[in-house]
Amino acid sequence: MDMKKSFLVVGGIIIVLFFFIFISVIVVRSRATKTTSDKATTTATTGGVTQRVATGPTQTTVKSSIWKSEDAGASFIPRSSADSKNPMQNADVLSIAFHPQKPNYLVVGTLSSGLYRSENEGGAWTAIPFPPQNIYSFILDKNMPDSRMFASGVLNGWGKVFRTDDAGSNWPAVYTEPGQKTIITSLAQNPKNPSTMFSGTSAGTVVKSLDGGITWKNIGNVVDGKVVDISFDANSSQVTYLLTYGKILYYSPNSGTEWQKWEDKKKDEVDALNKQVSALSKDKRKAEADALRLTVKALIEKNKSGKMPQNIVTIVTDPKLSGVIYAGTSKGLFKSTSYGKYWTEINIIESAKKFPIRSIAVNPFNSSEIVFVAGRAFYRSTNGGDTWAVTALDSDRDASFVAYDPFDPNNIYIGVSRI
Q1: Are 51 and 389 in contact (CB under 8 A)?
Q2: In angstroms, rounded to a whole number, what is the distance separating the alpha carbons of residues 129 and 288?
Q3: Dihedral sign, CA of 298, 300, 301, 306?
Q4: Which residue, of 25, 258, 319, 369, has the fewest CB within 10 Å?
């Protein structure tokens, strides 16, 4: 009996020890999980501004050309699975277009992998045949989005604009550049008047169509550099912006009839005032001349502090506010509320300035909400740029394009690219 009692006591002790070991393992794992969760959201301070940084859990990089968020950018999931014949997950994304009447319908244009259509918010993709190997710009027509699209490419050495009226089955060319080696690098359709279209080239020329791409004509002066973006004002159908890559943002008050350089325009304004000062001094109207000199001095300071940023990579206009335009550069984010005449720098997180800002978007329902992508990160501000939330992308490539779902701004799409 004594021996049996001893075995029971020893057995009880062993059971108790195993129980405590089991509890200890659970506690350690729980703390480790909490530590990982705590690392998902941290804070950073830049220039006296505190930002919430949502880094997300550590993961291996994922091959996906399209990423989607359903929680306003707090997290992203890959959305570019395709079959072996349509390897979209390796594509370099140029743009994402949304059907204006169908909430789940979107089309993606890629650099060298063609066009893809999804009718379930990116759940599945279908390749759209396109004659050239490379695509440089793409539009889903706003008048006939079910059947008509435009895309630019090079076929047999010639830069062309192609149009399909049967959802991609046939792509006849509707415009061809007269000289080889010239690429049509930008296509744009005026949202206020969808029959008005623009094509910009690598040589700095711009052509315009007033009949939905059937006929074209040269417009405006030749601009300096490769045209990479043509955008439109929120309210005025005439105000148009044109960007040449890394060089100049042009402004047109008359739908491209003339392209103005704001910095030249501001210099001309100062010169005109100085001439008035000279005339007043010559007429011995000293008090008036002195007062105007002060005006000129203040204007020079304003021009200097509000100078157009350099090395602009991308632009976007506010979808609701006239005259408001954002510019992403190789070293920061800038905003103009004067049609691009005067600029202020937005205080973004300092580390983001190490990467070019490749794409910007403004919430179509709330102009205070701005997002942009740089490197492999997504940045979102809900207060006009005062503070930022940041979400890392577990992508194998840098982000190249960001866009809001026009029907639900909680849905945000990002395209990635090696370029």
Answers
A1: yes
A2: 69
A3: positive
A4: 25
Query: What is the 3-class SS of 163-206, one letter each residue?
Result: EECCCCCCCCEEEECCCCCCCEEEEEECCCCCCCEEEEECCCCE
Coil vs helix vs strand at 300: helix
Q: What region, left, alpha or beta, does residue 29 occupy, with left being phi > 0 and alpha being psi -120 to 50 degrees?
A: alpha
Phi, psi angles (nearest 5°) of residue 289? -65, -45
Q: Are 391 and 54 in contact (CB under 8 A)?
A: yes
Q: What sign for the dihedral angle of Cα 235, 239, 240, 243?
A: negative
Q: Are 186 and 228 in contact (CB under 8 A)?
A: yes
CA distance 151 to 167: 12
User: Could you give the CA distance from residue 153 to residue 165 in angstroms, rounded to a whole number?
Assistant: 17
The upper half-sphere exposure of residue 35, i.e. CA atoms within 13 Å in the direction of its Cβ, equals 6
| Cβ–Cβ under 8 Å, residues 65 and 398 | no
Helix axes 286-305, 262-282, angle to 10 degrees: 170
With 0-12 / 13-18 / 19 or more C-beta atoms within 10 angstroms meaning exposed / middle / buried, residue 162 is buried
DSSP string of 132-162?
Answer: SS-EEEEEE-SSSTTT-EEEEEEETTEEEEE
N residues, the chain: 419
CA distances from 262 to 241, 250, 339, 342, 343 (A): 11, 7, 9, 9, 11
